[in-house]
Design a protein that fits this description.
heterotrimer; A alpha+beta (about 375); B alpha+beta (about 400); C alpha/beta (about 230); A: about 375 residues; alpha+beta; 11-stranded mixed β-sheet; two-stranded antiparallel sheet; 13 strands; C: about 230 residues; Rossmann fold; globular
Amino acid sequence: MKYFYLVWSNMKRRKLRTSLTLLSVFVAFLLFGLLCTIKEAFTAGVSMAGADRLVVRHKVSLIMNLPVSYGTRIEQIPGVAQAVHWTWFNGIYQNEPKNFFGSFSVDPERFFSIHPEYVIPDDQKRAWLSTRTGAAVGRTLAVRFGWKIGDRIPLTSPIWPRKGDGAWEFDIVSVYDGAQRNTDTSGFFFRYDYFDEGRAYGEGLVGWYMVRVTDADRVTEVAKAIDAAFANSPHETKTESEGAFAQGFVQQVGNIGAILIAILSAVFFTILLVTGNTIAQSVRERTEEIGVLKALGFSNVLVLALVLAESSIIATLGGFAGLGLAWFISLGGSPIPAVLPVFYLPAQNIVIGVVLVLGLGILTGILPALRAMHLQIAVALRRHA
Amino acid sequence: MTNWLTQLASITLFNLRTVGERKGSALAAAVGISGVVAVFVGVLSIAEGFRAAMTISGPDDVALVLRNGADGEMTSVLSREEVRLIGTAPGVARAPDGPLASAEPFVMINLPKRSTGTDANVPLRGVEKAAAAVRGDLRVIEGRMFELGRNEIVAGAGAARSFAGLDVGHKLRVGQNDWDLVGIFSGGGGAAESEIWTDAAVLQPAYHRGESFQSVFARLTSADAFDAFRDAVTTNPQLKVKAFRHGEFLAEQSTMLTGFIRGFGIFIASLMALGALFGALNTMYSAVAARTREIATLRALGFGAGPVIGSVLLESLVLALVGGAAGAAAAYAAFDGFQAATMNWQTFSQVAFSFAVTPKLLATAVIWAVTIGFLGGLFPAIRAARQPIAVSLRET
Amino acid sequence: MTSGNGVLVRVENVEKVFRRGSEEIRVLSGLSLEVPQGEFLALMGPSGSGKTTLLNLIGGLDRATQGAVHVGNERIDTMSDRQRAAWRARHVGLVFQFYNLLPVLSAERNVELPLLLTPLSKSERRAHVETALKIVGLSHRQRHSPRTLSGGEQQRVGIARAIVTDPTLLLCDEPTGDLDRMAGDEILGLLQALKHEHGKTIIMVTHDPHASARATRTVYLNKGRLTSEKPE
């Protein structure tokens, strides 16, 4: 640590150059943090999936409906603890497509027990069970529109018109929170009985089932059993684990991971080059001084360490600042809650970022450091002679 | 003026001699800029390609009619009577056997993607006899068109590329029904190529649709006939519908995704450009610092400040152009025509498209590169001109 | 630190060959020299004669191709790089023609540099630095950056740095080469004082007869060999 001021003084030698290099590193890691946040936003469904949950949908596609009677039949299959139906409502708020959010009709009795990731106070749950028009909305959604418990929210649905053609009216009785950072709390859930009675057509039809199994290790077996139970019926099913289902969605969007990794690789390669060049340049300029240090008795290894310390400090200052800002931005929530409701920087990406920072520090400094280490004193000092 | 230019030229040539000494930082700056350009072009070519796929097959004289209140074909419902009325509206072109209109039911099915093996949504559209004539640019490129009344389907070229099992001669089992794939069609690269088509009259019973349809596609007598047509169908009290030009409708259906990708691409590229700018500034500042004495000597000899600034700017611009061109060329080679498919959130189905590196995109990228080069050279150039001559002459 | 007969530095038959590509340049051949403890020795000769090379070999800054170099009880030429670095830090002070101060450090920080290699504490280092600066008469300028010091002052900082670890041997390569007559004289006076009052052994490379006149003995090099011990 007594050598610190030596390293620090060198960095202050050309303040502008050091600052510009720091800024480049800062930008690179800011990008890294933001892209990781975006990737997590896309794939949150996968990480949020319960290990003991299955999704049962119509075999032809998610768009087709299943009978509500399937629920009891699914629960009779060995290995199944609970089955809860969901139906996509496609609710439009204030006639504005930009106000898009996910709205669903669900089985109210069991909805929250099968989704422990949605946290609801008991009094709100009771209110929901006793109010036919009741709706439970997620915190993110409530904040977005400024909704409070007691508000009456009208929604229209192009796919499920109401008898008499008016708008559907709901009363907010609950605002639920997420159990974890990455829980999506942008949903709007209301009761199936109100929905089924009020819709102009399609009685007895639901969208899909969320099933909880008793033993998470037997998920695949139970899935097969469910599909077998409905094979050759008018509504054949396809059952898969919730994780696989969510993954399938992400993959429909495309290989986002690959694209982001490609971009980040381009960014890092460039940063490596820019920073490495700066360090190499600054070491080259100090050939004579390094010769002097060695002449004074600084060992080769010490000289190597001094150069690596310099590159590491630049990488660390810039990198941590960039990661820090990205994390801070992610705290502010999603800029497009309609598309990406979940928005945060996962801890494991932060760890990766830190590793990359350290790696950058070493990689950019290693070649100039080795060069400095092998510099011959007489050669270095001879420049003026 | 010529004197100014001569001075500029001689200083620049003088500088070029020393580029070799600075090749490390010159390379770094150029690579930084080419990185920005490559990423910018790459990501935006996705948006361009997607938009192109969605809007190509949308000639001005094809109209699309949906139920009022529906935000897309999936949420629209039209009865047989409504469909008949639409066919008789003014402006609809007529063929010897009836109006050039096709009423179409529409479902989404799941098929596994060739690339990942996991399921994705693909539209299965029932069409009427006039459908190909209505759309205008449909051609069967393999096999043949399906026969009416049979469980036969044809797949768009894009869908056939993306999904497993869509090969001519293959039998597809979807739900309770078996279908024979008898042909593959192309539609000029447009949205129809991401779909699978069959006879509407066969699709309806297969999916318990009774006599209902989702949409009507109509060929108009001319592009100008659209207004009359739209007015007629929207004011008819027996119809609760809305009408669009097909092209406008497709463009609107893709705005969200296109907008998102574009925004994303520009955001990423902006940050990268900032980083590249810092790199360029670094390079040019060290270039100037390294030649402090030389620049001072030139000025002491009488070269004006203008040519000095100009030479530094010129050098920076050249670096930026080289880097930008390299990045653009790399992006073009790597991305243009790259075939991909993604889910359009507004329609919830896969759209096959090719990355499109358009000339406009390349031009924009070059402008970005030049801007970075200009800014990267401007401040160092000014500093070079401002340094006091006497002090600079002494500096080693 | 001395061997029995008071000789501090013994150079035996050294040869130094530089290889540049396929070319071989013999800078020193068969050179032997003894420097007694406490002597102020001047090394003179035309440029290219190998004076600086000889100095470098004595100081362990470079390795002889052949021959032996003894300083005190230790044989320098067979030491590893690391051993020589450590040895140098303890036993040798270096003064350069162009001062070779680190421009990013203040005068006192420059003087402190060799002490960083010792286990001394911060306050101990500070004490040594102040002593050294006092000896060279620059206490009032210790916070200054080298850029703001005159040539003579910079060289005095260089000398302070050279003596801060209290080495027995001072090696000076053209210490007055970049200074005017007056400043040069000051430096030479300082060196003489270091010999007389502090008992340092000083080997100085120079081409200036005024400088060598201040030394107790002068030897001459020509084409890598000692030519005579008396001026011609």
